[in-house]
Structure formats: C-alpha cells, structure tokens
C-alpha cells in the first residue's frame, strides 16, 4: 500500500475494550494513520483520550455528538472514520461522515432499526463510499475456507445449520458495575430494543449466513430476559427454515455461566459436515458423509481466501485481533482501489458491509415480531 489512509475515530475512548481493538486492528497491517478523534461524548474524556493517543488536540472533534465537525474531518483530509460509539449514534455519525464524502468502518450492529440501516445503505450507495461493518468472525482464515468449501459444493445441499454464541458476562445484574459496555448495552436508549440479540445475535446470524451463503426465509423466536429488572434481552433462541428446505437453530446468550466467547457453527449437507469454534479459530473440522473426520488447518489447505486473510506461517496461531485486522485491511484495499481506479483484490470483497448490516437488522426485527406474537413463525 503506497500510503497510509488518514483515519478519524468517533467513540472508543478510554476504557472501551472494542475501541482499543479497532485501534490495534487498524495498526496491525500499517494501512492507516489515526490522526483525529472525537473519542467520547464528554469533552474532558475526549481530550484525555486524544492526548493518551497522542492525537493533535486541535483535531479533537470534541463531543462526538456534534456531527457538524464531520466537515472539519473532510478538511483534515480524513479518508475514513471508525465509528465505535453506542448503537444509537451509529446512524447520525455515519450519516454526517458519508455526507462529507468520508468512508465508514462501523462496529455492529449497523443501527437501532431497519429503517435507519436501509437509509445508511442508500446513502453509502449514493455517495459511492465504502461502509464496512466489523463482523469480526468473517475475518478468520478458516471461516473464509469454510465458506469456500460450501460454495464449491463440498458439503452438497445444505440441510441443517446450527449456530450458538454463548457468553456469561451478563449472567448477573452488572448494569451498575462500572463495566462501560455493560452499562450501555443493557440500556435500550443507547443499545436499541435488542440487547443480546443486537450485540451477539447478529454475529451468530452473520456467521451462519457468511459461511453457508444462505439466509432463512422464516423463523420462530424466543427472546428472553433472565436477569430481573434488565430492560433488554439477555438470551435468545430461534428455529430457522430456509427456502431450500434446510432447517436451523440459532442461540445467543449472555447468561450462559462458564462460557466466555463461545461462538460455534455446525453445517451439515448431503455430502459432508463441518464444525468451527471461535475459541479454537485456527482449525476447521470436516467430515465427509460416511468418512473420517479431518482437522483442517492453514497449512493443510489450498485456499486463496484463507491465504489472503493470514499474515504468518501455519502453526503460528492467529486470533481475534488478526481477524479484526483483516476487516480493516480489506477495507483499505477497497478504498485504495477506488482512489486509484484499480480493481480491489477479489478476496478483499469478503468484507462485511452495510448490506450485511441491513440483513442483520431484518433478522432482529423478525425475531422481535415473532416474540411479540408468542413465538409465531414469521418471514425474515
Ligand atoms: C460483547 O458481547 C462483545 O464485546 C461484543 O460486543 C463483540 O462484538 C464480540 O466480538 C465480543 O463480545
């Protein structure tokens, strides 16, 4: 890459785990230079975070709710903005920067309603700007290989999809624990109407869709809250039906005591089945119907998609940060391709974008509609 892209960041300031992940991911492949930030809704914290990151204080956009400063970002020659705010600010912040002609890399979920998400997709198209969504897990090499295997027909016709995402960090009432993410992800005014559903339910949805190339046509949901007094869901499950006749189960829970970040996917077709576990991301389990199970790793596959999404030789584990960095790298490849009027590497197009985000919001709205109708089957 002949020059690093100039990046601003909105949100993700002090104490934000995912803010640090975005900054490390942007730095790992040296594609970006973080030059400015509006890192908090509190100007004092914003200034302290900017100083901590050695950002030019004259380029601190202060209160990130003041979107008028997006023009300042354009004047600063910012190529792309990373949005790492609570969910309710994704749409207003992204809208301001897209209108200023600036590309967007935004944390999931895309927005707090399908209508907001569809408006963002239309704006990004009209402004011809990239809108990347950081669905981390599609950045893993072995996830991209799983997608290739299914696309090549190695599993045959898909019959059953099982995706579960289990955590336990919200198993107790932590809203007032000082955990920054717990504070806003359990507040419907900041997170939107979907708690666990919007946070990790969309990850589960997107991983199953990314790997299988299929999205359910209907679902029957149980959207539940275990912790008394909690104002958003903390456990969701759904039965899925696909247009090709396949069936599926999706579970996302943040009260699953003993589980840390257990995202597991199983896909079963007429010819073979596969299993992926996010907590062991350097391997993929593949079993032909009636055959032996094989542990696939980067050193034992011929996969352009996996090769593109890796940095160090097989046997040297890559993890969550590298998967996140892959999304930033793919975004940079696409932005530079547009700026230089050259084609982006095909593998970089596996990046999840605003359209994936809209599909995730459609899933959320179907889940909430089914729940409102006592678990009735609804279209997605
Ligand atoms: C909390 O559930 C969380 O930090 C999510 O918000 C991230 O998207 C996920 O990658 C890890 O867990």
UniProtKB/TrEMBL annotation:
Pfam families: GFO_IDH_MocA (PF01408), GFO_IDH_MocA_C3 (PF22725)
GFO/IDH/MocA-like oxidoreductase domain sequence ranges: 143-274
Entries under Gene3D superfamilies matching the protein: Dihydrodipicolinate Reductase, domain 2, NAD(P)-binding Rossmann-like Domain
Domain Gfo/Idh/MocA-like oxidoreductase N-terminal: 5-133
Protein name listed in UniProt: Oxidoreductase
Source species: Chitiniphilus shinanonensis
């Amino acid at each position: 890459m002949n020059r690093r892209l100039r990046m601003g960041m909105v949100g993700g300031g002090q104490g934000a785990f995912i803010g640090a992940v975005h900054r490390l991911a942007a730095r790992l492949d040296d594609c970006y230079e973080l030059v400015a930030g509006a890192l908090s809704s509190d100007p004092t914290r914003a200034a302290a975070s900017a100083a901590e990151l050695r950002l030019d204080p004259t380029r601190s956009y202060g209160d990130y709710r003041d979107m008028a400063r997006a023009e300042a970002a354009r004047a600063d020659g910012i190529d792309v903005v990373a949005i790492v705010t609570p969910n309710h600010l994704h749409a207003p912040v992204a809208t301001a920067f897209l209108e200023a002609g600036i590309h967007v890399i935004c944390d999931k979920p895309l927005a707090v309603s399908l209508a907001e998400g569809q408006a963002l997709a239309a704006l990004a198209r009209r402004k011809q700007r990239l809108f990347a969504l950081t669905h981390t897990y599609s950045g893993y090499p072995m996830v991209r290989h799983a997608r290739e295997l299914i696309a090549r027909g190695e599993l045959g016709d898909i019959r059953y999809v099982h995706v579960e995402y289990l955590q336990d960090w919200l198993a107790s009432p932590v809203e007032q624990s000082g955990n920054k993410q717990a504070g806003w992800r359990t507040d419907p005014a900041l997170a939107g109407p979907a708690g666990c559903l919007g946070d990790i339910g969309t990850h589960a949805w997107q991983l199953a869709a990314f790997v299988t190339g299929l999205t359910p046509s209907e679902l029957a949901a149980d959207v539940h809250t275990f912790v008394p007094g909690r104002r958003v869901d903390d456990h969701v499950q759904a039965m899925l039906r696909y247009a090709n006749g396949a069936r599926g189960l999706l579970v996302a829970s943040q009260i699953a005591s003993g589980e840390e970040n257990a995202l597991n996917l199983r896909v079963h077709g007429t010819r073979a089945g596969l299993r992926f576990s996010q907590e062991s991301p350097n391997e993929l389990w593949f079993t032909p119907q009636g055959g032996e199970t094989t542990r696939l790793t980067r050193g034992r596959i011929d996969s352009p998609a996996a090769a593109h999404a890796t940095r160090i030789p097989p046997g040297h584990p890559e993890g969550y940060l590298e998967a996140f960095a892959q999304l930033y790298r793919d975004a940079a490849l696409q932005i530079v391709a547009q700026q230089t009027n050259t084609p982006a590497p095909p593998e970089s197009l596996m990046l999840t974008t605003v359209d994936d985000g809209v599909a995730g919001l459609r899933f959320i709205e179907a889940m909430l509609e089914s729940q409102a109708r006592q678990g009735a089957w609804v279209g997605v």
